[in-house]
Amino acid sequence: MPETSEQPAASRRFETVLIANRGEIAVRIEHACRDLGLKTIAICSEADRDAPYVRSADSFLCIGPSSAAKSYLNQDAILLAARLTGAGAIHPGYGFLSENAAFADAVERAGLIFIGPPALSIATMGDKIAAKRAMMAAGVPCVPGPDTALPDDPASVERVALDIGYPVIVKAAGGGGGRGMRVVPMADQLHEAIALTREEARKAFGSPSLYMEKFLQHPRHIEIQIICDGHGNAVWLGHRDCSMQRRHQKVVEEAPAPGIAPEIIHPVGMACVEACRQIGYRGVGTFEFLYQDGAFYFIEMNTRLQVEHPVTEMTSGVDIVRAQIKAAEGHVLDLTQDGVTCDGHSFECRINAEDPDTFLPSAGVITRLVLPQGSGIRVDTHIHAGYKVSPYYDSLIAKLIVHAPTRAKAMARMCEALAGIEIEGIATSIPFLRDLFEDHAFARGETDIHYLEQWLKLRRAA
Ligand code: ADP
Known about the structure:
Elements: E1 16-19, H1 23-35, E2 39-45, H2 52-55, E3 59-64, H3 75-85, E4 89-91, H4 101-109, E5 113-114, H5 119-126, H6 128-137, H7 154-164, E6 168-176, E7 179-184, H8 190-205, E8 210-214, E9 220-229, E10 234-246, E11 249-255, H9 262-279, E12 282-292, E13 295-302, H10 309-316, H11 320-328, E14 345-352, E15 364-365, E16 368-370, E17 377-381, E18 388-389, E19 396-404, H12 407-420, E20 422-424, H13 430-436, H14 440-444, H15 451-461
Parallel strand pairs: 1-2, 1-4, 2-3, 4-5
Antiparallel strand pairs: 6-7, 6-8, 9-10, 9-12, 10-11, 11-14, 12-13, 14-19, 15-18, 16-20, 17-19
Bound molecules: adenosine-5'-diphosphate (ADP).
């Protein structure tokens, strides 16, 4: 556990945390708060009013109708709820308002503590060009390509692409969620790709600013978890591999990333820590990299708690949510880099309420639920038998996490856990995950970010 000094800066101390989120992460945050002796306030939409995790908070307030725009994304309603319930801090979880710099700023301006980094860090990392510039300055390795916005005139753009070398990828500076990017294999497709991406960026992200970088053809997705206390102390907690993706969405995550020699990753982790110090970061965060042919290339930083944080908790023994809350309170992190040790191997499967073949969302009532138990098995979830999965939100209903001394043993444990889980009444991704954990290339740890899509194609054809 990253134990910290007992006395936080008085100005940042709080006793009650409003959880501005729902589902499994609301449950996870509730546990961490209880562990720290903090009171919790749940907010919910009308669709979540009867959820047990809402009722198990010390108090709760229904803040709006089912639509996320009118509830979990409604900043005014959340701030009003905080005022009415006497909350001292707001934990945004992941998704929703967690990486909204204006919200973080509004929370602090209202005299509350935002459990996350300063608004300026969120804003810098939310602009991918500014993020790349900050990372290059801190010595973090980046994808080849300039740290400036693409110019308007066609001849200059062509020169940028030629300097990088085709294939290139054009990305929106304000992009996110796998949207606002386009691969350009050859020069004759450059101008059309830029026009389309610019238009998309303007509409979806409110800014036409684009940048260009080398398109890596067979990378893995490897990320580094960090914790900082805002007093200049920062550590990295090892690495994760999240290459198993469908439509840029992570499906299975593991820690550590297989086959990465410590001497290759160590300087990258240390550069991330240095970057955090340079930008005055506070709290938890993740540096995402593409890894190809033995080299790391930074793509973005997530300035929040991530869905896959449990695999790092399982290997490092650090309670990341607890550490995040303590950092927000102003405690000094007394975990040093030498004190970070990662043991064994951990996998996480995202269990979604969706058809295992078509991936279409599946809403409805869970009629029967059996969760696997046993040593090295953890399930983070908010569902129960009788729970109604609503069509309004993300389809994640549970995270199945395992830990074992070796990767092979952790895979075997995941197979066992997947065999033991039963969810009836709705369709889930469990049958697909069971098949995936039987795959030989996955077992060898040789899969890049395109592997799952190709595997799914073959599976459909079979
Ligand atoms: P977002 O913020 O939308 O998630 P990212 O920059 O993190 O965007 O990229 C999302 C995904 O797109 C990556 O995980 C990777 O699969 C792919 N990608 C992004 N940049 C590159 C690149 N330069 N080369 C190859 N693939 C890339």
